[in-house]
Amino acid sequence: MCACRKAVLLDGGFSTQLVENVGEEVDGHPLWSARYLASHPKAVMQTHLDFLRAGAEVTITNTYQASIGGFKEHLGLSEEESLRLMRRAVELAKEAVDIYMKENPSCKVRPLIAGSVGPYGASLHDGSEYRGEYADTVSRQTLADWHRPRIETLVAAGVDLLALETIPAQKEAEVLVELIKDFPRVRAWISFSSKEPGEEMDIGSTNGFTEDYHQISHGELLRDVAHECWSRNSNQLVAVGVNCLNPKYVTSLFSRINEEGRPHIPLIVYPNSGEVYSPKTGWTDPDNVASVDSYVDEWLSLGVEYVGGCCRTNAEDIRRMRGHVDRWLKEGTFTGPMGIVSTNSSCITNSVGCH
């Protein structure tokens, strides 16, 4: 096993940065940022480019809330037109990467494009991706049938890997890690939404260890779900983790995943800003949170290999995170996003030196 350090920087909250490029509020629509694929494609491309210029090594397509049903209902598109719009999302990300590479001709490592695969609950537009109760009534076959067209389209359009993200329930996670076996050349990460303090917990304490902060949204323990997914498809998964949670709970959530005696799982985290969200009032309390980048050193030391931001994090947040990642990498060797291994200064030149 290579003992090299590894740290890959993802982009940030797409809708948050997109606001800067469309000049209007993005939240509140059933399609969220995905509607701008049709109305503001240049702004979508620019948002990817903003994150790449800030230092992101992976940019995630604007397809989190994209679905055939959603595009049909809210944009009046046919099934083929809906799939074409999903392909367009990948093309826009590729365009941004091409521009970035032309701007940085000495950069030897091309940024990767991850195809965003949001949960079934996101299409319901009722916050279900942060509860997951639909997993109790929606069949595995229905979940697989709903996810397949988008995954198939993203893979065919040429994404480098898939971001199976904000998954609230073990049932849907298992469906996804099994489904991607039908696309054996693609790799993916899977990240979960999670419960936070103040939410009802289904599990109390075990052997004196409090399970607070360790459940995904539907109630299963993160460590158990992570190992179940890894055991089902470690050949294609590059990492397992969490996204869109308050950053101050990350260390607690990850504390027992890689316990001694269990297979080691690469970890991924891209939290929100730590602000509080209410469906009625939106994001609140922005002045009472620590900067997301202030947690990066702690997470990397914990063994996190992929780090970035989610809702309410923008390109400037990613720029600051880039600084933390660079400093951390200089202390050792580095394994790049495609498994390229370098040491010290040459590592920085071959990967993050582009920024």
List key phrases describing it.
about 350 residues; alpha/beta; TIM Barrel; eight-stranded parallel sheet; two-stranded antiparallel ribbon; 12 helices; disordered C terminus; Hcy_S-methyltransferase; transferase; metal-binding; HCY_dom
Indicate the CATH architecture: Alpha-Beta Barrel
* Residues in helix, %: 25-40%
The tally of domains stands at: 1
- Text of the CATH class: Alpha Beta
Order of helices and strands: EHHHEHHEHEHEEEHEHEEEHEHEEH
Radius of gyration from the CA trace? 19 Å
Q: Which outline best applies?
A: globular
Individual helix count: 12
First-residue to last-residue Cα separation: 29 Å
The mean pLDDT is: 87
The CATH homologous superfamily is called Homocysteine-binding-like domain
Q: What is the CATH T-level topology?
A: TIM Barrel
Spatial order of the strands forming the largest sheet = 1-12-9-8-5-4-3-2
**Total beta strand runs:** 14
The poorly predicted ranges are 200-210, 333-353
Strand content: 15-25%
| Secondary structure category | alpha/beta
Largest sheet: 8 strands, parallel
Binding site for Zn(2+): 244, 310-311
Cofactor: Zn(2+)
Organism: Thrips palmi (Melon thrips)
Keywords: Metal-binding, Methyltransferase, Transferase, Zinc
